[in-house]
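Need fresh eyes. Consider my entry:
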Amino acid sequence: MNLGWRAWLLAALLIGVLPVPTGAQVFLGSRPHPEFGIGPLFVRASVTPALGSVTVDVLWSLEIPPTRSALELEQDLYMLWPGEVDGLTNRGTPDPSLSRYVEARGFTALSVGRLPLYAQSLYQIGHDRPPEEISGGAPFVTFVQTGGALGLTAPATYIRVPWTPKMANRSWLIDLRMSIPGLIKPRRATWIENVFWGTRHIVSIGYNDVRPRAVFPMYFEHRDRVVRLGDAPAELVVNFADAEHLKINEVFPQSSTKRLSESLERTEVVSSFLEKSRGTAPQQLTVEFGYFSGLQALAPILIPLVFFVLGNFAGPVLQRVALNAARRVTARVHVGRPHQHPRGRQSGVILSRDALARIVPGETTYDDVIQICGPNAEHHEQLVMPGRRTLVYRGRRIIPNRTRTIGWLATVSHWDLEDHTTQIELEDNRVRDIQAHVRRSRLPAPELLKQ
């Protein structure tokens, strides 16, 4: 195994033990047409349940052509970051030349300072050998553009990385560390989703993204100074702490890998390799995720259980409420044609006067009565008088007393109840006597009719 592959394997191991990073954007050389490349490159972001500012580490080394010397190519590097940096700063006076540089191009400087800069040996990894801090760090200036047709731009940061011989040493990685606010964005969701499944967020890191309006003019002016990716692997990495309470919903691109960290406890790693063939085309790694509590973890079980319990207990209550509401509506509203006497609601058998007039005592037989009145009658026979029996027809009618009428709808003040009873006595299979009784009463609401 040659030195290059050994360095690459150690660099991959280094990703797991150094603080978590997220994506750099564009590297620029001090002179046009840099003859070296960036590689390996790791842009890592660390996400914790606190969801505040994200610590971003950009780790890289330089690929020097075998026909050139690092002394010949020695120069400072610059990096354009499409956002602001805060929190992590190094001691030292700012570099005023950076502020003058951006202001001369029509930008407004917001903040200046120095970022921590480290060098990590690939062959001496461990708690007993922490990264070596590079004195002075990396000066930066955060700027915006206030004029123009589109108005105020989002902040961008211009960082100068001083040259150190360890940049060209393949056994070392340079680590530029930043704290990036606003890198984690909340995902829009309904309040029900947030209550039961927790709030979901989106974190996105990338490389070669020069589309922001504050970054593009600086890139376009110095596009001949862009440092390209080398042959060594380059990767975007997001480390998520507290993996037991983490839920990753979606990852883009889909070719990204998810795995548990081999060196960091309770940490899940999402990574995506950068393709050298894409040149300066933007490449991004986007993860939709959420941290949940213990109760939210049981939501898939608790929610069906809650609905089951509510369905069993609340079902009869809701049914009773619905029936009461329906009775109130039917008691006060009647549907029928206007200017027509309401027929009301009827049950049982109510014989009309015409039907009773067709029954003649002494002539009408039992079969005639059944044919005129129907078979739904009560039969009463006298055992002491075998030739006599009585047919009883019962019926009920509820008639609404309509007040205000609007089309087919009318309000009802009360309901009139009529109980009809008709007794037909027969002797020797012929009608002997007929008696019809009607009992009337008033109801506040219609009763349920029974056959």
Notes: The chain has three domains: 3-292, 298-329, 336-443.
